[in-house]
Every structure is written in C-alpha cells, then in structure tokens.
Amino acid sequence: MYNILICDDEPVTCTYIEGIFSDYAKKNKIDIKVELFFNGQELLEYISKNSNIDLLFLDIELPDNSGAEVGKILRENLQNEVIQIVFISSKEKYAMQLFRIRPFDFLIKPLDEKMIIDVFEEYEKIYSKNRKFFEYKIGKQTEKILLSEIMYFMCDNRKICIVTTGEKIFFYGNMKKMRETFNEDGFWSVHNSFIINIMYVKLFRDREIVMCDGNVVPISNAYKKSIRKRLMELDEVKRDGRLG
Q1: Res 96: pLDDT
Q2: What's the rounded Cα separation, in Å, for the pair 43 and 91?
Q3: How many C-beta neighbours within 10 Å does residue 94 have?
Q4: Does domain 133-239 have CATH number 2.40.50.1020?
Q5: Residue 79 backbone class (left: φ over 0; alpha: ψ -120 to 50; beta: rest)
Q6: Which is nearest to 125 in space by CA: 4, 5, 243, 7?
Q7: Which secondary-structure segment (H or E) carries 224?
Q8: pLDDT higher than 90, residue 118
Q9: How far apart are alpha carbons 228 and 39 in whole angstroms?
C-alpha cells in the first residue's frame, strides 16, 4: 500500500488530486490510501501519530502555517526524512527557498493529471526498494521493520540496537555477521559497531557522522577510505544529474 497525504486549503485541489489517485489505483490495480487535510496543524498532528507515510502533497500558502514552516517542522522537529514532500504553489518564487527542506518535487498550479502521475511514478521508481523489511528475532518470535524507518544499527555488547527516530529496538545478534550478510543500498558500515542509513545523515565529518537526530556516530580508521570513496561517487552522481 502507498499512503499519500494531501494538504491544501482549497478543498477542490485536494479532491482533484484524490480523484486522480483513485482512478490510477483502479486502473493499475495497486492499493493507494489518500488522506486530506486543509491546514498545517491538523496535518502535523496526524503525522506525529502515524508512520509509513510515503508522499505528501503540500500547499505553500496555508492559512495557519506556510507550507515551508510545516516542512521545516517535519524535517527538524519531527526528524522525519522518510516522507517525500511535493510542494504545490501558484508562484514559482518559492522554489529556491524550499531547498533546505529537501523536497521531492515542486508543482506549479494549475495542476493536471500528468503532473501528479509523473511525480508518483518517479517516487515509485526511486523509493520502491525502501519498502523492504528487515527481519529480526526477539525470543522465538520474528519481528520486522521497514528499512526506511531505520536510522542506524548499533552494537551493544551481545545485542544489536535498531535506532529509529522514535525508539530503540534490541535483539540478540552478531554485528560481524550483520556486516557480512546485510547488503542493502544506502546502508554503510562506518565502524565495527555501527551501520548507518545515509538517508538520515545530516553531516559527514572526517572522523564522525552527525545524524538527523543530533546523535554522533564515529568513523573508524578501517572505514575512512571506503567512506571517502563512496562520498566521491555520490558527488559524481549528483553532478551528472542522476540524483534529485
């Protein structure tokens, strides 16, 4: 299932986008759930209590908070990097102001069906791999968590800790075996005791990494060279225009 939120103070815009997704879901036989909001406060309250949201279509000119303010709260206060934001506006001037909020896209009104579907299909192409789960055992019971919700793995004596933005989950495991068998794009080994999800990295430094929640993860000497190489590769991809 894809969970999509639409927030615009114009009900006609919300129902228009909702209708597009309803038709698209039926035509392509996929499950899409859409929730509508008409102000930023209700939207933020919903997001704070609900996880696994994929896309947010967010109007810039809201009556209570601007879309930029809502996006800033989402990224900085709620520390949510998973939801991909598609800003909507009738004015192009906002585009550069929103760069720090890391939006997925920016749409100018009037909207049409192709614009909406193009954004969704681009999201699906890029982020479908993030809908994978990581499985672990607590006692005899097998649990699972979306990879996109994991900030990093941390070794804690004989246990491994899964750190998310909202909780820490402990299970018995071996970090060495994790590094050998856990092979997912976007997860980097940076220390014998840490595997990070680069989606949640705020800043790379020479000997440490600052995560989006402010926690600092050390980089060991054994991994410095490989991390430098990966960062250079990411920069090359960005310059080639293959990212964002």
Answers
A1: 53
A2: 22
A3: 18
A4: yes
A5: left
A6: 243
A7: helix 221-239
A8: yes
A9: 43
pLDDT in tens, 228-239: 888 888 766 544
Angle between helices 113-127 and 11-28 in degrees, nearest 10: 60
Which range, of 98-112, 150-164, 219-233, averages the lowest pLDDT?
Answer: 98-112
Cα separation, 221 vs 20, whole angstroms: 51
Out of 3.10.50.30, 3.90.79.10, 3.40.50.1820, 3.40.50.2300, select the CATH number for domain 2-130: 3.40.50.2300
Q: Is 163 exposed, middle or buried (0-12, 13-18, 19+ CB in 10 A)?
A: buried
**Residue position matching structure tokens 């009556």:** 63
Nearest to 223 by CA among 243, 199, 206: 206
Straight-line distance from the first to the last Cα atom of the chain, in angstroms, rounded to the nearest whole number: 24
3 vs 185: CA distance, rounded Å: 23
Instruction: Please state, in angstroms and as integers, the Cα–Cα distance from residue 219 to each residue in 105, 139, 163, following that order.
Output: 33, 32, 17
The Cβ of residue 162 has, within 10 Å, a number of other Cβ atoms equal to: 20
The number of residues making up the chain comes to: 244
How many other β-carbons are positioned within 10 Å of the β-carbon of residue 92? 9
**Which pLDDT tens digit goes with each residue over 146-192?**
888 899 999 988 899 999 988 899 999 999 999 888 888 789 999 99
Domain locations in the chain? 2-130, 133-239
